[in-house]
Each structure stands twice: as structure tokens, then as C-alpha cells.
Specification:
globular; mainly alpha; 16 helices
């Protein structure tokens, strides 16, 4: 399978999960009004999705190592489809939280299995290139999904968004059945039992490079989760944007991430992975802390916030795909487990940060920016320790 074909198929499958988040964002204020719920309750529909999305990866990854990549896709996408129907029919915020949680549990398969497929096909810079191409396809989500959600709200209500996601789930099943080959042959499959699972987890948890890179990516991704959970209320509440205006502002912020992600592979080949991650994390901290200082000084206008987050998210576009690939690279024999554990740790980290910072969120920009800056500082501390270990490992291997 050519790299372009693989990127297109895996990107389309991987985009379904982000669409379930991004298309829904402009509707959050409408959901709060329609279901008579407060901001915290509506944010729980995101937190439930993210936490289930993370934890379910611990099931799909080992399962995909044992039975191959396609069967878990069939099961997970089917669960996503049924949960989307439940979301569309939810009579209360409690039911919506429950079905969004099930939706996240199903959609998780579209995160962990494509990562494992990439590792089946390539390693090193080639894998980073394929990951970046996949992210290029996924980039249609933050650019088009919020606008699509705003358009659906204009002709119906927020429930219509979930009916459209049902169609996306059905199309994913067709794509899996007709276009995605099985990339893990019977001879490469690993029988999963509690002993093997625990042994693999211990190998990963005791690997300082795997854990460090995973958590650097985790806190980086957590900053984006904080933005996702808060931005619709900040942009529409504090700055008075319409759902369409919010969608455009959100797309601008997200474009920085996906545009920069396309440079991750070439820069890693040219400068080395350690240098790319180091400077990207430093840039991430500089832009977010600087934006926080501007906000505390009272000058955080909408153009300033959009510009600052665009630059910060561009740094994330270098950090997340690079740390993701390099964390998996030494663990090809348990790529599914490594992918699922990494995804779980990142999603749980993000969910925890949203819950932690949600207690301080008041609908204005400064608490949101402060939470994003906190995530950046955590990533910096981890990068300082992890990259030192990686540099020593590279030096030892050279000797």
C-alpha cells in the first residue's frame, strides 16, 4: 500500500473521532439552553468522551495485537454508531453525558488502530512522515467540522449533528471493509493474556523515554483539550461571536497545529528528533506564558488571543506527532499495547486538566489561557528530563 493511499484511508478513519468533538463545539451553548444545563454539565459531555476515549484504548490495543487490526475496528465503530443514535435521542443532559461516554469508548478504536497500522508499515522518519500525512487529512476536522456544525444548527437543532455523525460511523465501517487491508499477519500476532499484558505494561512504564515522550505529548494535547472545552463559551460569551464566527476563530487556531505537523517529518530528518522537540516545547511555553501575561495585563483582545493560540498550536504540531512516533518506535513487538497505553495516558491527562481547571473557569479568556500555559510548563519540565535521557542513549549507541 502506497504512503499516499495509507494516509488517505487512515486519515479518513481517524478524522471521525475529531469530527465528533469539533462539529459539536458550536452547539454547546445551545445544548446548555435546550437541556437546561449549566456550563460544567455540558463540559462533562466532553470530559466523559475524552476519558472513555482514553481508557478504551487499553482494550483495543492489546486486542488488535492478538486478532489483527480490522476486527476491533468493526466493533468499535459499531459502538460509536449506536452511541451517536443515543446522543441524538437524549432527553436530558445526564443521558447525553452517558451516550457521549459510550461514543468515546467506540471512537477510541479510530485512534489506537491507525497508530498501530502506521507502526506496522513504517518506522522512524518514514513513520513520522506518514503520521504527518494522516494528520493532514485529519486537519479537515478543525477547519470544516465546526462550520458544518454551525450550518446544521442553522437548519435544525443540535441533535442533527449526531445524526450526521451516525452517517460518518456507517461510512467508516464501509471504508474498513473495502479499502483497509489487514497489516498484521497471523505470524506477527501476540496472544494476549493477563500475564503478557502486565509484562508489556511494566516494560513500557519502566521505559523513561516512552513515559517521558508520552506525557510531553499528553500535556501538550491536554492544552488543546482545555481549549476545546472552554473556547465556545469564551468566544461566544465574552466576545459575542456567533456559532459561525466561533467556528472560523476555532479553525484559525487549529490550522496552526496541522500546518506545522507537516514539517515534523522533514525537520526531524534534518535537525534530529531531540532538537525539534526541545525547541518546539520552548516555543510552546514562550507563546502561552506570554499570552497569559498579556491577558493578566488586560490586553487580551480577540485578535491577540487568536494569534497567540495560533502560534502556540503550531508548536504543538511539531510536538505531538513527533513524540507519538518516537515513543512507539522501540516497541514494535507490542505496538498496539504501546499505542493504547500512550493514548490512555494522554487522554486521562487531558481530562484531568480539564476537570482541574474547570473549577476556576468563569467564561472568560484568562483562566483558559492560564490552564493552557500550565500544561505547557508541565511539558517543559518533562522535556528537560526526557530529552537528556534520549541524548545520552543516542551518544551511547554511537559509541
Amino acid at each position: 500500500m502506497s504512503m499516499f493511499r495509507a494516509a488517505l484511508i487512515l486519515g479518513l478513519l481517524s478524522a471521525v473521532g475529531p469530527f465528533a468533538i469539533d462539529m459539536y463545539l458550536p452547539a454547546m451553548p445551545d445544548i446548555a439552553a435546550g437541556l437546561d444545563a449549566d456550563v460544567a454539565a455540558v463540559q462533562m459531555t466532553l470530559i466523559g468522551y475524552f476519558v472513555a476515549f482514553g481508557l478504551a484504548q487499553m482494550v483495543y490495543g492489546p486486542w488488535a495485537d492478538q486478532v489483527g487490526r480490522k476486527l476491533p475496528l468493526y466493533v468499535g465503530v459499531s459502538l460509536f454508531l449506536l452511541a451517536s443514535i443515543g446522543c441524538a435521542l437524549s432527553p436530558s443532559i445526564g443521558w447525553l453525558i452517558a451516550f457521549r461516554t459510550l461514543q468515546g469508548a467506540g471512537g477510541a478504536v479510530l485512534m489506537v488502530v491507525p497508530r498501530a497500522v502506521i507502526r506496522d508499515l513504517h518506522t522512524g522518519p518514514q513513520a513520522t512522515k506518514l503520521m504527518a500525512l494522516v494528520m493532514l487529512v485529519i486537519s479537515i476536522s478543525p477547519m470544516l467540522a465546526p462550520l458544518a456544525g454551525a450550518g446544521l444548527i442553522s437548519i435544525g437543532d443540535w441533535r442533527l449533528i449526531f445524526w450526521v455523525l451516525c452517517i460518518g460511523g456507517a461510512l467508516s465501517l464501509v471504508l474498513t471493509a473495502t479499502a483497509l487491508p489487514e497489516t498484521l499477519g497471523p505470524g506477527a500476532r501476540v496472544r494476549v493474556n493477563l500475564h503478557n499484558l502486565w509484562r508489556g505494561i511494566k516494560v513500557l512504564v519502566r521505559d523513561p523515554i516512552f513515559m517521558g515522550l508520552t506525557l510531553i505529548g499528553g500535556f501538550s494535547f491536554a492544552s488543546f483539550m482545555v481549549f476545546i472545552a472552554s473556547a465556545s463559551f469564551v468566544y461566544t460569551g465574552e466576545f459575542g461571536l456567533s456559532p459561525t464566527g466561533f467556528s472560523i476563530a476555532f479553525a484559525i487556531n487549529a490550522i496552526g497545529f496541522f500546518a506545522a505537523s507537516q514539517a515534523a517529518g522533514p525537520l526531524s530528518e534534518r535537525l534530529g528528533v531531540v532538537l525539534v522537540i526541545r525547541w518546539a516545547v520552548i516555543g510552546f511555553v514562550g507563546f502561552t506564558v506570554g499570552l497569559l501575561a498579556i491577558g493578566l495585563a488586560g490586553y487580551a483582545s480577540l485578535p491577540v488571543i487568536v494569534t497567540g493560540l495560533f502560534l502556540a498550536n503550531a508548536c504543538l504540531g511539531l510536538i505531538i506527532p513527533t513524540t507519538m512516533v518516537m515513543a512507539l518506535d522501540p516497541h514494535g513487538d507490542i505496538a498496539g499495547l504501546a499505542s493504547s497505553l500512550g493514548g490512555t495516558l494522554q487522554m486521562v491527562t487531558g481530562g484531568a486538566m480539564v476537570v482541574l481547571t474547570g473549577t476556576f473557569f468563569d467564561g472568560t479568556a484568562v483562566p483558559m489561557i492560564g490552564a493552557i500555559a500550565l500544561c505547557a510548563l508541565c511539558a517543559l519540565v518533562l522535556a528537560w528530563r526526557t530529552l537528556a535521557v534520549m541524548s545520552r542513549s543516542v551518544s551511547s549507541a554511537a559509541v
